[in-house]
Amino acid sequence: MAEAIVSTILEQLASVLQQQVEEKVRLVVGVDEEVQKLTSSFQAIESVLEDAECKQVKVKAVGDWLDKLKDVSYDIEDVLDEWNTAIQKLRIMEDENASKLVTKVCSLMSCYRFCCRRVVKRHDIAMKIKRINQTLDVIAMEKNRFPLSSNSIKGARGVEREITTSFVDESEIHGRDDDKKEIKNFLLSESSNGPTSLPIISIVGLGGIGKTTLAKLIFNDHEVTAHFNKQIWVCVSDPFDEIMIGKAILESLIGVAPNLNEFESVLIKIKESINGKKFLLVLDDVWTEDSNKWEQLKSSLKYGAKGSRILVTTRKMNVAKAMRSTNFVEVGMLSDEKCWSLFSQVSFYRRNNEECKKLEGVGRRIVKKCKGLPLAVKTLGGVLRSKTKIEEWQSVLDSEMWELEDAEKGIFSPLFLSYFDLSSELKRCFLYCAIFPKDYVMKKDQLIKLWMAQDYLRTQGNKDVELVGGEYFKKLAMRSFFQDFERDKDDGSIVSCKMHDMVHDSAQYLTKNECFSVEVDYSKGFPLNSSYSKARHSMIVLKNSASVSSSIFQENRLRSLIFECDYRWRDQTCIDISNLFNYLTCVRALRFYGKSIADVPSGISKLTHLRYLEVSENNVIIELPEAVCELYNLQTIDISYCGNLNKLPEGIGKLVNLRHLINYRSFFECIYMPKGIERLTCLRTLSKVIVSGDKKACTFECLRNLNHLGGSLEIECSGVDLGEINKAEFKNKTKLLFLDLRLLSNVINEEALEDFQPPPNLERFGLYKYRGTSRLFLNWMTSLTKLRMLRLYGWSGTELLPPLGKLQFLERLVILAMKSVKRVGDEFLGMESDNLSASSSSSSITAFPKLQSLQFYNMQDWEEWDCLTSGRGGQDIKIMPCLRSLKISRCPNLKTLPDYILQSTTLEELVIRDCPILERRYRVERAENWVKDSGIPKFRIYEKSLFL
Fold first, then answer.
1. Which of 425, 710, 843, 918 could be stapled to 735 by a disulfide with Cβ–Cβ 3.0 to 4.6 Å?
2. How crowded is residue 602: how many other Cβ atoms within 10 Å of its Cβ?
């Protein structure tokens, strides 16, 4: 960690000297020399830092010295950030003054006041630098007490091979076939019932041996899934919170988070939900040996049907016995050959045979040192995957880190070997994850933004810092520092992940309480201890109506403060922030989740260093104060799911460094968004913008220069002429992939959409509340070769659907609330008679050639869905040849499905909800018994309407 901080400071010191030249501003006399002295001291220290970080694990005094160095490094980082911010403010003020006509007197007065403040600020910064230099002198002298080598490990590593492929799928299991077979037999065999009606099977083994991976493999086995009516997975971890576990079980059973706070109510609901159902419950990572905490919960589970099972994973046999397990499976070490198979799969990926033979001998000796632990094997495989020289492999084999044996205390030698092989930037990113509690689901994009806020990401050239963060994440994932990946259903990209317990323990050990989480319970209060005062990054989990007073942060120098509310208490305001901002003078990332606060005080302007501000899922907050606009370093504002937030501050344009304005599902009552948005040319994310005709409001033209916008953008149009839409120059926004246009009742000239010039790489488009009758806007839609999803909602003037069958690349189509549509026919397929005649020379015509998913919802007047093109003109006509899923809901007058649906050979899922005529027609008891013979694996009819 210290190595990365010092490296960053040296870059910042060089930047300060450069800025003084470029900006023609200077600190007070003599400070240039102080800056040079700081630079020299840090350069001398930097040369021994890698060796010091390795030795700190075994030599406590070295660790203490590094702690002092980190403290002074953080101080100088803050001072340099103050200086850069002062320059930033000067630039913005000059730009504002240049754009305004002010009287000479007012201009002189303003200039005089600013210059006075500037002199004071410069003197303050200068004095801080001098004091820090004095402290650093002492630290620099202390390093001579230790025999630290200045030979750079980094230089010996060579250049890391560029990684161009995804990391190995960690779901691969090696050497556990017998264990899997034994556990499946316990789960599926009726003879394993024994004397109890609810057998408990425990998987016991060391940390990192693969217990959870084995349990997941069994949980997802097709025989197991077919055998049980309900499958429930709960991550337990430590401490054992019976209420949380009970609610997690209940949520899995009923599909929604239960609004219950009393344990007895939870138990009763569990009993009702599992009554008569054969279920499999997996309790992963159980630590408690207190059987009393388990008994009440167990009693409520005995009402399941015969054949129900509970599967437990734990490191300790005493835990399995305390839970009164009926069967035990002790997972042993992998054999050397199985370890080698796993290791070579990871480390030899895409190497040629000659390379593999050269490295095999050293590799097998490294694997032998892993002592049969799969986590160790995968971790070192990830380290060596990027190394091509046999000397680099030999260096890992000979490392003294193998002498660290106490894995249960967080000292896990293969993880340390992998950690010390990371670049200084990756080390900081990895250790930051210790801010989260064990088994916490980390959202990838949010994690990258938090890294950004701490300035952990080093950019090269014009590459976006977010892309660099994505590369860092990928490299850490390849080293097995992350696991349990959740992926996006559309593109397969990683959305979230977790850290293995032992990886988390290692990170916590290395941060020495610099990053950590703490739970606050109303009955126990805030667990203050001496280590918390040293925290730099902290996450506070609020439970059971707990409250937090800002006074506990008086002695803190936090750089990250994240409040996470237990979901049972998210509706309660429980954080006193009246004085909070007086203490958080160093904070760079601040997150309030749920209704934990009632408003954002104007005192937030004191947080000069703040880069990340999140106030999400809060329906209490009405507005953000203008003071937010004084936070010139802000990179991210996340106000998603704040439905009652009705305005952005008028000075939003001052936030010229803002890259992400995440306001998804917010501004339900907002009338306009202020001008000034056009100055935010660094924006990469803008979830929603309201475009209106108000003179002081954001217009289409305000979006013209926001060409870095990517991801998803929702545009709500109110009282605006759509003829202005091309002034936004969407054709230049090549990174914008998803676009939704929502038209309110006072929108003018909807026909202007015929000439719309959309973003060229659009993958998803939605058009809401369109009232025109023209379908010519499809001329530009057919040019979108990357359009995969289309959503049309609430068109009021259209009696016939557009010829959407012409969209050659469309994979998913959702049509909702088309009030005037009574019939869907050939025009929907793009195969009207005139079109077919014109294309008679073609031997084959395909409508919706790539469509996989089709949904209709709330089509109240829709009666007919037919097709008259079959065999017309002797042409080979294909309709939806790739369709896999069809869902129809709240279409009460629809009479039948067309032949091309009934005869589909690709359809895997058909869901009908709240469509009484279709329900009667396609019940299983029909004479033709179409449902039984259709071959559709998932055919469901629901009487209760649900949104699709």
1. 710
2. 13
Q: Specify the residue for token string 């054949």.
A: 307
Q: 486-490, 588-592, 849-853: which range is least confident on average?
A: 486-490
- Total residue length of the chain: 948
> What pTM does this model have?
0.84
Cα(612)–Cα(636) distance, integer angstroms: 5
**Confidence at residue 45, expressed as pLDDT on a 0 to 100 scale:** 82
Residues in contact with 89: Cβ distance below 8 Å, sequence separation at least 6, in sequence order: 632
Per-residue pLDDT at 874: 52
CA atoms within 13 A on the CB side of 936: 24
Largest CA distance in the chain: 98
Q: Which residue has the tokens 């899934």?
A: 225
Beta bridge pairs of residue 230:
279
Instruction: Give the Cα separation of 699 and 715 in Å (integer).
Output: 11
Helix (H) or strand (E) holding 563: strand 560-565
Q: Which residues contact 908 (CB under 8 A, 6 or more apart)?
A: 884, 885, 936, 937, 938
Which residue reads 């044996």 in tokens? 405
Q: How far apart are CA 308 and CA 252, in angstroms?
A: 16
3-class secondary-structure state, position 826: helix
The residue type at 192: S
User: What is the C-alpha separation between 745 and 149, in angstroms, rounded?
Assistant: 72
* Bridge partners, 496 (sequence order): 443, 486
Cα–Cα nearest to 596, from 563, 623, 553, 628: 563
CB-CB neighbours of 669 under 10 Å? 11
Q: In whole angstroms, give the CA distance from residue 652 to residue 759.
A: 25
Q: What is the crossing angle of helices 263-274 and 242-254, to 10°?
A: 30
Residue 348, phi-psi category: left (phi > 0), alpha (psi -120 to 50), beta (remainder): alpha
* pLDDT the model gives residue 434: 93
Q: Kindly give the pairing relationship between strand 636-638 and strand 230-237.
A: unpaired
Q: Cα Rg for the chain, rounded, in angstroms?
A: 31
- Cis ω before 239 (30° cut-off from 0): yes
- The whole-angstrom separation of Cα 875 and Cα 856 is 29
DSSP per position, 695-749 = TTB--GGGGTT-TT--EEEEEEEES-BGGGGGGG-GGG-TTEEEEEEEE-TT-B-
Q: How confident is the model at residue 162 (pLDDT cuts 50, 70, 90)?
A: very low
Phi, psi for 314 (deg, rounded to 5): -155, 155
Q: HSE of 805 in the Cβ direction (CA atoms, 13 Å)?
A: 22
Token output for 102: 């002010």
Please report where in the chains the tokens 């040369």 appear, as a residue. Answer: 47
Over range 923-940, report the average pLDDT.
Answer: 53
DSSP 46-58: HHHHHHHHHHTTT
Q: What is the DSSP letter of 514?
A: S
Tens of pLDDT, residue by residue over 404-443, are 665 444 457 888 888 888 888 899 999 999 999 988 999 9
